[in-house]
Amino acid sequence: MDKPHEHAIAVDDLVVNRGGKCVLDSVGFTVAAGSVTGLLGPSGSGKTTLLRSIVGVQKITSGTVTVLGTPAGSPALRSKVGYVTQSPSVYGDLTIRQNVRYFAVNYGVSRNAADEAVRAVGLGDIANQMVNSLSGGQQARVSLACALVANPAVLVLDEPTVGLDPVLRRDLWQQFHALAAAGTTLLISSHVMDEAERCERLLLLREGRLLADDAPASLLHATGAPNLEEAFLRLILNQLQPAKS
Ligand SMILES: Nc1ncnc2c1ncn2[C@@H]1O[C@H](COP(=O)(O)OP(=O)(O)OP(=O)(O)O)[C@@H](O)[C@H]1O
């Protein structure tokens, strides 16, 4: 049996340069196993680059990224880490069910598990529809079902709820918490503040630097802000002000 790891993800002094520019600058944090952590930050702040580093598809400049006690990207992590990218990576000329069953076969998982994953993302009623006839939000859910079917220990999701209606967003978040309660570690990027409130812990990235790593309630307390949007604003303004001597 695998040894349990206190930290499902550990990032230490991570630097990533892309196109000659420093995109992540000395980023460090840990993610507890079985937790839901939100990664927030404006467009271009480095969220996707950080998620790519964790799933092991990003060339890093220096530092270390460890997942389940193993260097990110190790072959041993292949079936243990699920990654849902921002643009859906599914086959347009297959139906929803066929897509998810295809992934199920690759992971050695039953057809029933595939059909269950399709239902879990709210697509059970249209499972026989071709993927290229679906909306962008529906295609994103097919991608999510393909990641869920392997039942990974760590699930990395890049903006999984973009374009979804509020009811579906709420349902998916309930599902994320149910997965965490069953032991899955979830790291979810978002730029929607009401989603930040649903996370146990928040990482705030700005211009490649980690500005905050705390629980939502602690961030509100520390900044004295009435909501997380305002808390982040105050953190940014504090960072911009010159230090008092
Ligand atoms: N392939 C690439 N080559 C060079 N620079 C890149 C490349 N991909 C991203 N970048 C740069 O890296 C920085 C961080 O990009 P990244 O996609 O990680 O940000 P993000 O926070 O995920 O943004 P968004 O929310 O818009 O997806 C940006 O300045 C971007 O221009």
Automatic annotation (TrEMBL):
Residues 9-232 form the ABC transporter domain. One of its GO terms (molecular function) is ATP hydrolysis activity. Signal peptide: none annotated. The keyword ATP-binding applies. It holds the Pfam family ABC_tran. Keywords: ATP-binding, Nucleotide-binding. This is ABC transporter ATP-binding protein.
